[in-house]
Known about the structure:
- This protein is of the alpha+beta class.
- Helices cover 31% and strands 16% of the residues.
- It has two domains: 9-180, no CATH class; 208-400, HAD superfamily/HAD-like (Rossmann fold), CATH 3.40.50.1000.
- The chain is built from 13 helices and 14 strands.
- The strands form four sheets. It has a six-stranded antiparallel sheet. Strands 13-12-11-14 form a four-stranded mixed sheet, sandwiched between helices. Strands 7-8 form a two-stranded parallel sheet.
- The radius of gyration is 23 Å and the shape is globular.
- GO terms for molecular function: metal ion binding; phosphatase activity.
- Its cofactor is Mg(2+).
Amino acid sequence: MELKAVGDVEDIDPNRRFGHELWPLDAIDPKKASFPCCLVWAPLPVVSWLAPFIGHVGICREDGSILNFSGSNFVNVNDFAFGAVARYLELDREKCCFPPSLSTHTCKIAYRHMERGVAMTWDNALNTTMHHFEHKSYNLFTCNCHSYVANCMNMLCYGGCLNWNVVNVAALIILKGHWVDNMSVDTMLTELHSQGITIEDIADTLKRAPIHHKAISAIKSAYALGCDLRIVSDANVFFIETILKHHGLIDCFSEINTNPSVVDEVGRLRVLPYHDFNICPHGCDLCPPNMCKGLVIERIKASVFADVRKRFIYLGDGKNDFCPSTKLREEDYVMPRKNYPVWDLICSNPLLVKADLHEWSNWDDQERILLHLINTIIFGDVIPSSIIASDCKFQTIPISNQDPLQHVVPVPHITC
Length: 416
C-alpha cells in the first residue's frame, strides 16, 4: 500500500519550512506518556484484533501531551481513551507549512491552504482544530478520532498535502508506526483473553492473515538453492510458527529469533521479551528494550563465519533493522525498503553501513533483486537477474557460494 497522500504533494517541497525557527523537542518518553509531535494509537478491545487497522488515534502537542477526539463535543487532553499508547509515529515539523503571516504565505498551494485553514505553529493547528471539534457530534464512520487527526494534518499541510483523511491516517500509523515496546502486545493479548478470545481464535485469525504469493515461492526457491534461512523478528514465536506452519514453510527455516511466547496457568497467551530488560538490558540505544537484532546478528556471524565463504543478505523495513544492518561486512548485502524507517536511518547515517545496499520499493523490486543476489552469489555474474521469479520478506539469509544444496537444520520448536 502506497502511503503518500494523494493530491498536491508535487506542488510543494515537503522539506521546506516557512517562517519560523523550530525549537528542540523533549525526547519521547512512553513511561510518562509523552510523545512530542507524534501520532499515537491504542487498540480497541476485540475490534482491533479482528481488524488490526482499526484503533483509537490521537495527535500530540510539542510538549508531548495527547489530544484525541473521544466523543461528541469533547477532545481529551492527556487522557488517552482506551488505555495506554501502544504504537506511535514521530512526525517531522520540517514537513509542515508555517507561513510567517497570512499576507506572506508563499507556498504554491497557498490559496487552497488558506481556504482549508492555516496555522502559525504546530500547537496552533492542534488547538484550532480542537476548538472546532468541540462543536462536532461523534460518528463512528464519518466524524471520529481519525477525522480529528486528519484535520490537524491538513491544517499543517503535512508533507505538502491537503488531502489527509481517515484512511491514509490509519494506514500511516499502522504501517509506519512503532510499538512502544513488546509489552504492548502482551497487554493486548491479556485484554483479548479477558474478552473471551481463546488461543484457538487467535490462531484462526493468524491463518487468515494474507501473505503475498511471491513471498511463499521465494522462500521455497531460496531454500531449494541452499540458502540457510533464519528469521530475526520482533514478533513472537506463536505468531510466526502458526503462520509458517499454515503455509507449509516451517521446515524452510533453520532458526527463528524472536520474542518467546508461553501459555500461563489460566490458558492466556503471554509474550515475553527476547532480552530481559529488567534483569540484563542489552544496552543498545538503536533498538527497543525487548530485543536488539544487532546482537542476534553478531551471534549468528560468530557461528557461521568460521566458513569465510558465507555471505549475508539482510531484508528489513523497520527502525530496529538499522542496528543489524551496521553489523555486516562489505561483502554482505542489505536490502532496505525504500522510504521506510530503516531506509531513512541508512540515508542519514550512510557511513555506518558497510554492506552493499540494494533498496526496494515494491514486491516486484524485492523479487527481482533478492533472487538476483542469491544467484549471483551461488553461480557468479553470468546468471541473469530474471532467472527466477519469486519474493521474500524475511530478514536474515546467510548464503554459501560453494554449497548450493547444503541441508538446512530443522527449526527448534518452542512449546506454546
